[in-house]
Amino acid sequence: MAASRFLFFLLTAHRSLLTVLPALITTMENYLPLRLGLKIDVDTRQGFREGVPALAEILEARSIKASFYVSLGPDNSGKAVFRVFTQRGFLEKMWRTRAPAMYGLRTMFYGTLLPAPVIGEGAGEILRLLAEAGHEVGLHGYDHVRWHDHLLAMGREEVSRELARAQECYTRHLGRPARSFAAPGWQCSAAHREELAAGGFLYSSDTRGYAPYFPRFGAEVNALLEIPTTLPTLDELLGFNGCCPEDFTELVLSRLQKSSVPQVLTVHAEVEGGPLKGDFARLLDRCREQGVEIFRLEDWARELLAAQDKVPAASVRQGRLPGRAGTVSCQGPLEAQR
Ligand SMILES: [Zn+2]
After folding, report:
1. What phi and psi, each to the nearest 5 degrees, are found at residue 299?
2. How close is the Cα of 16 to the center of ligand 1, in Å?
3. Residue ranges of the domains in the chain?
4. Dist. CA 258 → ligand 1 center (Å)
5. DSSP code, position 315
Protein backbone atom coordinates (compact mmCIF):
# COMPACT_ATOMS: atom_id res chain seq x y z
CA MET A 1 0.00 0.00 0.00
CA ALA A 2 2.80 2.39 0.99
CA ALA A 3 4.66 1.47 -2.19
CA SER A 4 1.70 2.23 -4.46
CA ARG A 5 1.16 5.56 -2.68
CA PHE A 6 4.84 6.40 -3.25
CA LEU A 7 4.52 5.44 -6.93
CA PHE A 8 1.43 7.64 -7.24
CA PHE A 9 3.39 10.53 -5.64
CA LEU A 10 6.29 10.07 -8.07
CA LEU A 11 3.99 10.03 -11.10
CA THR A 12 2.14 13.14 -9.93
CA ALA A 13 5.36 15.00 -9.12
CA HIS A 14 6.85 14.00 -12.46
CA ARG A 15 3.74 15.16 -14.29
CA SER A 16 3.60 18.51 -12.49
CA LEU A 17 7.34 18.98 -13.09
CA LEU A 18 6.76 18.44 -16.81
CA THR A 19 3.96 21.01 -16.71
CA VAL A 20 6.04 23.70 -15.04
CA LEU A 21 9.35 22.94 -16.82
CA PRO A 22 8.80 25.19 -19.88
CA ALA A 23 7.83 28.12 -17.63
CA LEU A 24 10.84 27.40 -15.41
CA ILE A 25 13.21 27.44 -18.40
CA THR A 26 11.69 30.72 -19.67
CA THR A 27 12.14 32.27 -16.21
CA MET A 28 15.76 31.10 -16.06
CA GLU A 29 16.39 32.47 -19.56
CA ASN A 30 14.94 35.80 -18.48
CA TYR A 31 17.53 36.00 -15.70
CA LEU A 32 20.52 35.06 -17.88
CA PRO A 33 22.36 38.27 -18.75
CA LEU A 34 21.99 39.34 -22.37
CA ARG A 35 25.41 40.42 -23.64
CA LEU A 36 26.17 42.61 -26.62
CA GLY A 37 29.61 43.49 -28.00
CA LEU A 38 29.48 46.95 -29.58
CA LYS A 39 31.81 47.46 -32.54
CA ILE A 40 32.03 50.89 -34.18
CA ASP A 41 33.69 51.11 -37.60
CA VAL A 42 35.01 54.47 -38.78
CA ASP A 43 35.39 54.52 -42.57
CA THR A 44 35.52 58.20 -43.59
CA ARG A 45 36.92 61.57 -42.57
CA GLN A 46 33.43 62.91 -41.88
CA GLY A 47 32.63 59.84 -39.79
CA PHE A 48 35.83 60.41 -37.82
CA ARG A 49 35.50 64.16 -37.32
CA GLU A 50 31.73 64.34 -36.69
CA GLY A 51 30.38 60.82 -36.11
CA VAL A 52 32.97 59.72 -33.52
CA PRO A 53 32.46 62.69 -31.14
CA ALA A 54 28.65 62.33 -31.48
CA LEU A 55 28.86 58.61 -30.64
CA ALA A 56 31.26 59.25 -27.75
CA GLU A 57 28.71 61.67 -26.27
CA ILE A 58 25.82 59.19 -26.68
CA LEU A 59 27.91 56.45 -24.99
CA GLU A 60 29.17 58.73 -22.23
CA ALA A 61 25.61 59.72 -21.30
CA ARG A 62 24.81 56.01 -20.79
CA SER A 63 28.15 54.97 -19.21
CA ILE A 64 28.79 52.50 -22.05
CA LYS A 65 32.30 51.53 -23.21
CA ALA A 66 32.59 50.32 -26.81
CA SER A 67 35.20 49.23 -29.36
CA PHE A 68 36.09 51.75 -32.08
CA TYR A 69 38.06 50.68 -35.17
CA VAL A 70 39.43 53.54 -37.25
CA SER A 71 40.67 53.76 -40.86
CA LEU A 72 43.57 56.23 -40.65
CA GLY A 73 44.65 56.53 -44.31
CA PRO A 74 43.23 58.47 -47.27
CA ASP A 75 39.44 58.77 -47.50
CA ASN A 76 38.87 57.49 -51.03
CA SER A 77 35.12 57.08 -50.61
CA GLY A 78 34.46 58.54 -54.08
CA LYS A 79 36.19 55.52 -55.66
CA ALA A 80 33.62 53.23 -54.03
CA VAL A 81 31.12 54.56 -56.57
CA PHE A 82 32.85 52.39 -59.22
CA ARG A 83 31.47 49.34 -57.38
CA VAL A 84 28.33 50.01 -59.35
CA PHE A 85 30.10 48.24 -62.26
CA THR A 86 31.50 45.35 -60.24
CA GLN A 87 29.14 44.54 -57.37
CA ARG A 88 25.64 43.20 -57.67
CA GLY A 89 23.23 45.11 -55.41
CA PHE A 90 25.44 48.19 -54.99
CA LEU A 91 23.11 50.65 -56.76
CA GLU A 92 20.06 49.22 -54.96
CA LYS A 93 21.75 49.68 -51.56
CA MET A 94 22.85 53.26 -52.41
CA TRP A 95 19.29 54.09 -53.40
CA ARG A 96 17.59 52.30 -50.47
CA THR A 97 19.82 53.91 -47.80
CA ARG A 98 19.85 57.33 -49.50
CA ALA A 99 23.65 57.12 -49.44
CA PRO A 100 24.43 60.74 -50.55
CA ALA A 101 22.37 62.11 -47.62
CA MET A 102 23.81 59.51 -45.23
CA TYR A 103 27.48 59.97 -46.13
CA GLY A 104 27.45 63.61 -47.29
CA LEU A 105 27.96 64.77 -50.86
CA ARG A 106 31.58 65.86 -50.32
CA THR A 107 32.56 62.36 -49.09
CA MET A 108 31.05 60.86 -52.27
CA PHE A 109 33.69 62.71 -54.36
CA TYR A 110 36.79 62.17 -52.19
CA GLY A 111 39.52 60.43 -54.17
CA THR A 112 37.96 61.22 -57.57
CA LEU A 113 36.78 64.81 -58.21
CA LEU A 114 38.07 65.97 -54.80
CA PRO A 115 41.49 65.04 -53.35
CA ALA A 116 41.41 62.26 -50.74
CA PRO A 117 42.01 63.75 -47.26
CA VAL A 118 44.08 61.61 -44.89
CA ILE A 119 41.89 60.72 -41.90
CA GLY A 120 44.85 60.21 -39.54
CA GLU A 121 46.22 63.72 -40.06
CA GLY A 122 45.40 65.80 -37.00
CA ALA A 123 43.53 62.81 -35.55
CA GLY A 124 45.45 62.74 -32.28
CA GLU A 125 43.00 64.65 -30.10
CA ILE A 126 39.94 62.56 -31.01
CA LEU A 127 41.88 59.27 -30.68
CA ARG A 128 43.24 60.27 -27.27
CA LEU A 129 39.81 61.40 -26.04
CA LEU A 130 38.36 58.01 -27.01
CA ALA A 131 41.13 56.11 -25.24
CA GLU A 132 40.91 58.32 -22.14
CA ALA A 133 37.14 57.77 -21.98
CA GLY A 134 37.82 54.03 -21.64
CA HIS A 135 36.83 52.95 -25.15
CA GLU A 136 38.86 50.40 -27.05
CA VAL A 137 40.61 51.96 -30.06
CA GLY A 138 41.63 49.52 -32.80
CA LEU A 139 42.47 49.73 -36.49
CA HIS A 140 40.06 49.49 -39.42
CA GLY A 141 42.75 49.22 -42.09
CA TYR A 142 44.55 52.14 -43.69
CA ASP A 143 42.88 52.91 -47.03
CA HIS A 144 39.36 51.56 -46.46
CA VAL A 145 38.29 51.47 -50.12
CA ARG A 146 41.54 49.86 -51.28
CA TRP A 147 41.24 47.11 -48.65
CA HIS A 148 37.54 46.56 -49.34
CA ASP A 149 37.98 46.26 -53.11
CA HIS A 150 41.43 44.67 -53.47
CA LEU A 151 42.38 42.71 -50.33
CA LEU A 152 41.67 39.31 -51.83
CA ALA A 153 44.20 40.01 -54.61
CA MET A 154 46.90 41.37 -52.23
CA GLY A 155 49.93 39.32 -51.19
CA ARG A 156 51.48 39.46 -47.72
CA GLU A 157 53.89 42.23 -48.71
CA GLU A 158 51.13 44.58 -49.82
CA VAL A 159 48.98 43.78 -46.78
CA SER A 160 52.01 44.34 -44.58
CA ARG A 161 52.50 47.83 -46.09
CA GLU A 162 48.84 48.77 -45.40
CA LEU A 163 49.10 47.56 -41.80
CA ALA A 164 52.45 49.26 -41.22
CA ARG A 165 51.10 52.62 -42.41
CA ALA A 166 48.05 52.34 -40.16
CA GLN A 167 50.13 51.20 -37.20
CA GLU A 168 52.69 54.01 -37.70
CA CYS A 169 49.94 56.66 -37.63
CA TYR A 170 48.21 55.05 -34.61
CA THR A 171 51.47 54.79 -32.64
CA ARG A 172 52.40 58.40 -33.45
CA HIS A 173 49.13 59.59 -31.90
CA LEU A 174 48.63 57.16 -29.02
CA GLY A 175 52.22 56.26 -28.13
CA ARG A 176 51.65 52.49 -28.48
CA PRO A 177 50.63 50.15 -31.31
CA ALA A 178 47.04 48.98 -31.80
CA ARG A 179 46.22 45.50 -30.43
CA SER A 180 42.95 44.94 -32.26
CA PHE A 181 41.78 45.08 -35.85
CA ALA A 182 38.53 44.99 -37.83
CA ALA A 183 38.77 44.33 -41.57
CA PRO A 184 37.14 46.95 -43.83
CA GLY A 185 34.07 45.57 -45.60
CA TRP A 186 34.51 42.22 -43.77
CA GLN A 187 37.17 41.24 -46.31
CA CYS A 188 39.44 38.66 -44.74
CA SER A 189 42.35 36.73 -46.30
CA ALA A 190 44.97 34.23 -45.17
CA ALA A 191 47.67 36.82 -45.97
CA HIS A 192 46.23 39.52 -43.72
CA ARG A 193 45.50 37.09 -40.86
CA GLU A 194 49.12 35.85 -41.00
CA GLU A 195 50.37 39.43 -40.85
CA LEU A 196 48.10 40.24 -37.90
CA ALA A 197 49.11 37.06 -36.04
CA ALA A 198 52.79 38.00 -36.53
CA GLY A 199 52.12 41.62 -35.57
CA GLY A 200 51.28 41.17 -31.89
CA PHE A 201 47.52 41.65 -32.17
CA LEU A 202 45.29 40.24 -29.41
CA TYR A 203 42.36 39.36 -31.68
CA SER A 204 40.62 40.57 -34.82
CA SER A 205 37.02 41.02 -35.93
CA ASP A 206 37.09 40.49 -39.68
CA THR A 207 34.20 38.25 -40.62
CA ARG A 208 30.46 37.70 -40.33
CA GLY A 209 29.53 34.67 -38.29
CA TYR A 210 27.89 33.35 -35.15
CA ALA A 211 30.56 32.65 -32.46
CA PRO A 212 34.29 33.27 -31.78
CA TYR A 213 36.74 30.93 -33.56
CA PHE A 214 40.20 30.46 -35.03
CA PRO A 215 39.95 30.83 -38.83
CA ARG A 216 41.17 28.02 -41.04
CA PHE A 217 42.46 28.69 -44.55
CA GLY A 218 43.07 25.39 -46.37
CA ALA A 219 45.00 23.17 -43.96
CA GLU A 220 46.33 26.11 -41.90
CA VAL A 221 44.56 27.34 -38.78
CA ASN A 222 45.37 30.98 -38.07
CA ALA A 223 46.74 31.59 -34.56
CA LEU A 224 44.79 34.81 -34.00
CA LEU A 225 41.37 34.73 -32.30
CA GLU A 226 38.48 35.92 -34.49
CA ILE A 227 35.37 37.54 -32.96
CA PRO A 228 32.88 37.82 -35.82
CA THR A 229 30.02 40.27 -36.21
CA THR A 230 26.94 38.17 -35.54
CA LEU A 231 24.08 40.61 -36.18
CA PRO A 232 23.05 42.34 -39.40
CA THR A 233 23.81 46.07 -39.64
CA LEU A 234 21.20 48.81 -39.65
CA ASP A 235 22.17 49.99 -43.14
CA GLU A 236 21.72 46.46 -44.53
CA LEU A 237 18.15 46.19 -43.29
CA LEU A 238 16.96 49.81 -43.45
CA GLY A 239 14.21 50.08 -46.05
CA PHE A 240 14.48 46.35 -46.80
CA ASN A 241 10.89 45.01 -46.78
CA GLY A 242 9.87 48.30 -45.12
CA CYS A 243 12.27 47.83 -42.16
CA CYS A 244 12.54 51.00 -40.01
CA PRO A 245 15.06 51.69 -37.17
CA GLU A 246 12.50 50.59 -34.51
CA ASP A 247 12.06 47.22 -36.29
CA PHE A 248 15.85 46.85 -36.34
CA THR A 249 16.07 47.49 -32.58
CA GLU A 250 13.44 44.82 -31.90
CA LEU A 251 15.30 42.38 -34.18
CA VAL A 252 18.53 42.96 -32.20
CA LEU A 253 16.69 42.38 -28.91
CA SER A 254 14.97 39.23 -30.14
CA ARG A 255 18.30 37.82 -31.40
CA LEU A 256 19.85 38.57 -27.99
CA GLN A 257 16.98 36.86 -26.19
CA LYS A 258 17.16 33.75 -28.40
CA SER A 259 20.92 33.34 -28.26
CA SER A 260 22.92 31.60 -25.56
CA VAL A 261 26.18 33.32 -26.63
CA PRO A 262 26.93 37.07 -26.64
CA GLN A 263 26.09 38.86 -29.88
CA VAL A 264 28.24 41.39 -31.76
CA LEU A 265 26.69 44.44 -33.41
CA THR A 266 28.63 46.60 -35.87
CA VAL A 267 27.60 50.23 -36.29
CA HIS A 268 29.16 52.89 -38.51
CA ALA A 269 30.32 56.32 -37.33
CA GLU A 270 28.92 57.75 -40.58
CA VAL A 271 25.44 56.27 -40.05
CA GLU A 272 24.68 55.73 -36.34
CA GLY A 273 26.91 58.72 -35.45
CA GLY A 274 25.36 60.76 -38.31
CA PRO A 275 21.76 61.01 -39.55
CA LEU A 276 20.63 57.98 -37.48
CA LYS A 277 22.19 58.96 -34.14
CA GLY A 278 18.78 59.48 -32.50
CA ASP A 279 17.72 55.98 -33.57
CA PHE A 280 20.99 54.54 -32.24
CA ALA A 281 20.52 56.28 -28.88
CA ARG A 282 17.01 54.78 -28.68
CA LEU A 283 18.43 51.32 -29.48
CA LEU A 284 20.85 51.67 -26.55
CA ASP A 285 18.02 52.81 -24.25
CA ARG A 286 15.86 49.81 -25.25
CA CYS A 287 18.84 47.54 -24.57
CA ARG A 288 19.23 49.08 -21.13
CA GLU A 289 15.49 48.61 -20.39
CA GLN A 290 15.92 44.92 -21.22
CA GLY A 291 18.99 44.55 -19.01
CA VAL A 292 21.46 44.06 -21.88
CA GLU A 293 25.10 44.32 -20.84
CA ILE A 294 27.14 46.12 -23.52
CA PHE A 295 30.87 45.43 -23.62
CA ARG A 296 34.13 46.09 -25.48
CA LEU A 297 35.35 43.25 -27.69
CA GLU A 298 38.83 43.29 -26.15
CA ASP A 299 37.35 42.33 -22.75
CA TRP A 300 35.61 39.34 -24.27
CA ALA A 301 38.80 38.44 -26.20
CA ARG A 302 40.74 38.25 -22.91
CA GLU A 303 38.04 36.00 -21.38
CA LEU A 304 38.11 33.72 -24.42
CA LEU A 305 41.91 33.58 -24.64
CA ALA A 306 42.13 32.56 -20.97
CA ALA A 307 40.50 29.27 -22.04
CA GLN A 308 41.49 29.22 -25.69
CA ASP A 309 41.53 25.41 -25.95
CA LYS A 310 37.75 25.62 -25.79
CA VAL A 311 37.59 27.96 -28.83
CA PRO A 312 36.99 25.90 -31.98
CA ALA A 313 38.29 26.43 -35.52
CA ALA A 314 36.15 27.20 -38.56
CA SER A 315 36.81 27.79 -42.24
CA VAL A 316 36.32 31.20 -43.90
CA ARG A 317 34.53 31.63 -47.21
CA GLN A 318 33.12 34.46 -49.31
CA GLY A 319 29.34 34.71 -49.15
CA ARG A 320 26.44 37.07 -49.79
CA LEU A 321 24.25 38.66 -47.12
CA PRO A 322 20.80 40.21 -47.52
CA GLY A 323 21.02 43.98 -48.04
CA ARG A 324 24.80 44.02 -48.64
CA ALA A 325 26.37 44.50 -52.08
CA GLY A 326 29.16 42.14 -53.18
CA THR A 327 30.51 39.34 -51.02
CA VAL A 328 31.87 39.31 -47.45
CA SER A 329 34.04 36.80 -45.57
CA CYS A 330 31.80 34.43 -43.61
CA GLN A 331 32.45 31.86 -40.89
CA GLY A 332 31.93 28.24 -41.96
CA PRO A 333 30.74 25.39 -39.68
CA LEU A 334 32.58 24.98 -36.36
CA GLU A 335 35.24 22.26 -36.19
CA ALA A 336 36.01 20.60 -32.87
CA GLN A 337 39.67 19.96 -33.75
CA ARG A 338 42.27 22.71 -34.20
ZN1 LIG B 1 34.25 49.97 -42.68
Report:
1. -70, -40
2. 53
3. 34-335
4. 28
5. E
